[in-house]
Structures are given as C-alpha cells and as structure tokens.
Amino acid sequence: EKGMKELVSDLNVCSKRGLSERFDSTIGGNTVLMPFGGIKQRTPIQAMVHKIPMLEGECSTVSMMSYGFNPYILEQSPYHGAYLAIVESVAKLIATGASYDRIYLSLQEYFEKLGDNDKSWGKAFSAVLGAFRAQMELGIGAIGGKDSMSGTFEDIHVPPTLISFAVTTDELCKVVSPEFKGRGHEVVWLRPELGEDGLPKAESLIKNFKLVRTLVDNGLVAACYTPGFGGPAEAVFKMAIGNNIGFEFDEGVSMREMFGYAYGSFIIETSKNIDLTADMKLLGKTVSRESIGSKKGRVRLLALNALYEGKLEPVYSCNIKTSDESIPEMIYRTRSDEAPGSTVDKPRFLIPVFPGTNCEYDTARAVEKAGGEAEIFVVNNLTADHLKRSVKEFAAALAKANVLFIPGGFSGADEPDGSGKFITSFLRNEAISVELMKLLNERDGLVAGICNGFQALIKLGLLPYGEIGVQKENSPTLTFNNIGRHQSKLVRTKVCSTRSPWLRKASVGQILTVPISHGEGRFVANTNDIDTM
C-alpha cells in the first residue's frame, strides 16, 4: 500500500490531465485514441493515433507516434539511457497494436555545453553510441532529429538527454487502447531476456514485438501497456483507473519486481486464455473489487486516484468543485412536426471561414456525409477593400444557401476579451443580416454554430430569440468555464428537447457523448429566459 501511494504521487507518474486538457484533442475529427481512455477518462494513452485526414471519403490508415525518455537512467549511464529510450518508444507503438516492420525514429538530443571538457564530450558520445546500437540491433533507423549542445547556464547543466520519437502507420482495426476492458480477465507479463549489461537482448525484443502483434491479429489482446518509469506497478494502476476495474496480483509475483524498471516488456489483458511462452508469466486477474493488491493486502483505486490527481491539482487543476444541490430536470417531450416550405435534394450549407477558424473541413465532411452540399467561404480581411468584397460575395452566397453553418476555432484569437466578436460584427453587416433573416423567415432555412459559431449566434440574439438584436446587460451568454481554463474532453450530454430540426432523430432523455474544446463553455441566462426556452 505504501509503495503504491508513493508511486502514484511521484511527479514522473502522477496525472497530467489538468495540463493535457488545455490542448484540443479532437480537432480534425480523426482522433482514434483520446489522451485518456476508459469511461472515467483517466488511463493515459502511450501513443498518439489519428486517421490520415482526407477531404473526401474515409481512410482506415492511421498514423502513430510515441516517445521514450528516462532522465534518471541517462544521468547514470547515457549509453543505457539512450538505448532504452529507443526501446521504450518502439514498445509503446507495439503496445498500441502497431506492426514492428514499419517503425522509424526521430531523435532529440540535448546536452550541456561541451567545450574542452572530456567528460562532457563523453556523455554525448556514449548516448549517441547507445542510440546507434539500438538502431542497428533492432533494424530501425532514425530519419530525422535535432541536436542541442547549449544546455548550460552558469554552473547549472541539463542532464544528458536523448529522447526517442517512434512513428509508423498501420490499420485502424489493429489499434489497442491501454485501459482494462473487463473483469475476470487474465493479465500476463511478457518480458524480454536481459544481457550481461542489463539491457534487453535485441533478438528477444524483436521476437516479443512480433508476438504481441500476432496476439493482436488473433483478437486476443483486450488492453496492453508497456511499463515505463514506474514499472509494472504503474502500468497496472493506470490500466485500472480508466474503467475502475480492480486488479489482483498472482501469488507468485514478486512485489519488488513490480516497482522496478521493465523496459521492453508488456502487460497484456486478454479475455481469452492464451498459451504462456517462456517469456510470459501470469501477472494476475482483473476483479470486480475496485482495488489493487493481493491476498496479503489491497488499496482502493479511489484512494490512489485521489493522490494521483491531487499531486498537481494546485498547479494544473483537473477537478471542479461541485455542489450537491440537485439540478431541476428540464424535459420537453412535445415534438415539432413542422416541415420546411420548400424541399431540395441536397441542402446547400454555407460554411464561413474567419481568421482563426479551425474546423471548417470537419464541418464540411460531416455535412456531405449526411447528404448535404458544403460550400466553404473564406472571409478575406487582408485589407479593408478585401473585407468589403467578402461582405458582398458572402451576402450573395447566403442568398443561395439553405443553411448557414458557422464552424468553431479561435476567431480573432478570441480577442478582445472573449470569442466570436469578429464573426458577430461581420454578420451584423446590413447586407448580410438582411439575407440571414430572409433565410430564416422567408426560405425556412436553418442556422447552426459550433464553438465560436455558437457564441456568435448568442451575441447576435439569434439564440435564443430567433432574430438579430442588440445584446443587453442581462442577455444570455457563454462565459468562462467553472474550472477556470480551457478544457478538451468527451462529455455526456442529455437531450432535453427534440423541437430543434437538428435533433429530429434524437430521443428525449437520450445521452450523447460529445467532444468539447473550449474555455468559454458555460451558458448563463436569467430565470425568465431559461423558463421561456
């Protein structure tokens, strides 16, 4: 218990979710693995995986990237540290389902100022030798990288640093996520043989890399994780917290081994019993009890997670203090059977692109997938004349459109003091606003907005009033998140009404999983407006 609590509180192991959520993880609509997996969104992934973006059609090919680096090992032995950095980065791709055959590397080195100091030169040289040996033995080449020899300030030096980035492409259907998937599953530990120098033998690594892929191909891997800084104990804990699935170690497992380095090994959850090879041993089983331990003692996942997320909570908050006050249920079950006055085979969607817009391609792809025709219109604000021309051309395009769909992003860098202001100013132009109201009132058209687009619709008054007006002091608005920062994650959203044409195929009470990425996602309105809505 003491060892696990100290481990999850270590800065090298503890949760970085509060930092990670500040960065958009869903833009582009091609994310395969979110930064944190499981229903609780807590298990950190070991490799970034995205589908190759396409303007038309679908692609089943994914790009995969991971890294490897342990400054403590590099400080003790740059040779060993560089070798293991490459092993770790490659093993992370293998654990995510990648094939060993198509992996390449990029190396980032950073050392103290070398000058005429033989020892300083020796650190850099031995690290490069270790990396070179790993590449030669594994048959994997580095096709790029960056060197820096200026890591010295007065008498302060960076530790010898060689970070390995591993990249590859593979098929979407082969991707494996690291969180435990079910209870009652066997978990095995696949380890490489070690040489006299303490490094894993290359032939053993390659054999195990290929074995993991074979298990993936045969559908035997439910989850996989390669141990890093915190050893197998860290791996098991992080695999467990994503879905709050407990784990019990087998009686024959040495707890000392669980807290040691085990680079190049794999913790594999399998829903079907597999034949253990000479390099495999049964590590334990997933259990219904939400704890980690053995028959000698256990520690609750809830307690460990509090320490795990609490370490950096004062710096990078990842939890919001919530009230126990119940929220009144807002349900409106009456459906609207209103139909548009005119019908078209393929509705034309006008998608404006403002400075800072970043999801116009995602929006257009979704529109066309649903059967619409997307027209992306780039608003040119290079000069005043360009902007005037854009206003004229946009108004003409809007006159032919069936739907105005405003995508999201960071229009005008969300300045001054909030998002959507440039979009709002543009749409308030008389020529555009007249056509916009004709779209809604005369042609039974629709309007939608995401992120900045939604903010602009509120500031215009189109939401919730249905017409362009002047925003007042008590008008509804979107304001800063309670957590006080940008957050990107998946949220569960309840459908309370289906009167909107956009929700005709949804059901009242239905729970939808929706990606968010915003700093201003809190809708605020007075009681009268809430009751009216």
From TrEMBL:
Record PROSITE patterns: GATASE_TYPE_1
Protein name: Phosphoribosylformylglycinamidine synthase subunit PurQ
One Pfam short name: GATase_5
Gene3D superfamilies the record matches: 3.40.50.880, PurM-like C-terminal domain (3.90.650.10), PurM-like, N-terminal domain (3.30.1330.10)
Gene Ontology MF terms: phosphoribosylformylglycinamidine synthase activity
InterPro entries xref list: Class_I_gatase-like, PurM-like_C_sf, PurM-like_N_sf
SUPFAM superfamilies registered for this protein in UniProt: Class I glutamine amidotransferase-like, PurM C-terminal domain-like, PurM N-terminal domain-like
GO cellular component: cytoplasm
Protein species of origin: Mogibacterium diversum
SMART domains: GATase_5 (SM01211)
Superkingdom of source: Bacteria
Upper taxonomic lineage: Bacteria, Bacillati, Bacillota, Clostridia, Peptostreptococcales
Gene Ontology biological process terms in this record: purine nucleotide biosynthetic process
